[in-house]
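can u do me a favor
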């Protein structure tokens, strides 16, 4: 099987040295029997991120997709998924991670194991028991916790702990199901809410989803969060207005 590792980024030049080091360790320890391909999506970075990727990842198996201007993380994931689905086979996996080293790769083996236990999507979950968020300002944790709690009621995502994180593992077959079901659009929304859009479509198609606890340690990243909190809360709430139509369109997935 092939593991596609999707990494969208915006101005993360200073985080790539550590990312390369951690991915190297992960690959050396876990990829002996399988192949991997890293798919970077540069989303109009204004720093020297692109040069840094080519430098730090020179001896990795990677591809870099490029948005000439900033189109948002939702669009970046859509770009990566469309590219992967052209060639991937049904039993391949797609791992999506952040570029800023907050996606601690030490839990990926557990995520892969869980998926082999019969779950088609596995979320890394700071809000699950056993998970937590450290070294993050109280206000950000507070807002994030309540947004998450409230949104999973509003958007009919009950039973899941973490709904908006980037760090996830998907089976290719379920991504293909969603693409077929929703006119090739796994993610229509441009912003950070795009990941929640995809989760809603997965849940409405009754895809088996599980979670693995994550200790999300923000001190692992250099630089600041690029997410605009109020803008993202507004965008997340607006997903409510698409809930019904996505539910009506959803076709139950059979593995
Ligand atoms: N493609 C794309 N990626 C982005 C954008 N903004 C942030 N990112 C990436 O998305 C990930 C999460 O963003 P981050 O700023 O860390 O948000 P936070 O983790 O919610 O604080 C990081 O890998 C960023 O480089 C964007 O506009 N487009
Ligand atoms: Mg981050």
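np, heres the sequence
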């Amino acid at each position: 099987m092939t593991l596609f590792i999707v990494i969208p980024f915006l101005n993360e030049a200073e985080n790539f040295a550590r990312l390369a080091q951690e991915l190297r360790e992960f690959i050396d320890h876990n990829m002996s029997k399988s192949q991997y391909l890293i798919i970077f999506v540069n989303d109009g970075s204004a720093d020297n991120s692109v040069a840094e990727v080519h430098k730090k990842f020179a001896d990795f198996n990677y591809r870099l997709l490029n948005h000439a201007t900033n189109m948002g993380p939702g669009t970046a994931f859509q770009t990566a998924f469309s590219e992967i689905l052209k060639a991937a086979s049904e039993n391949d996996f797609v791992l999506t991670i952040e570029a800023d080293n907050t996606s601690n790769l030490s839990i990926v083996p557990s995520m892969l194991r869980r998926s082999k236990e019969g779950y088609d999507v596995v979320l890394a979950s700071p809000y699950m028991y056993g998970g937590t968020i450290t070294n993050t300002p109280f206000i950000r944790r507070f807002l994030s916790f309540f947004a998450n709690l409230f949104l999973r009621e509003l958007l009919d995502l009950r039973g899941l702990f973490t709904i908006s994180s980037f760090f996830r593992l998907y089976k290719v077959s379920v991504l293909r199901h969603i693409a077929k079901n929703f006119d090739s659009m796994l993610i229509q929304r441009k912003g950070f809410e795009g990941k929640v859009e995809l989760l809603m479509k997965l849940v409405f198609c009754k895809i088996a989803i599980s979670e693995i606890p994550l200790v999300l340690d923000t001190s692992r990243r250099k630089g600041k969060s690029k997410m605009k909190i109020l803008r993202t809360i507004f965008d997340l709430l607006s997903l409510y207005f698409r809930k019904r139509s996505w539910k009506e369109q959803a076709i139950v997935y059979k593995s």
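Residues 2-249 form a domain with the Spore Coat Polysaccharide Biosynthesis Protein SpsA; Chain A fold (CATH 3.90.550.10). hope that helps!!
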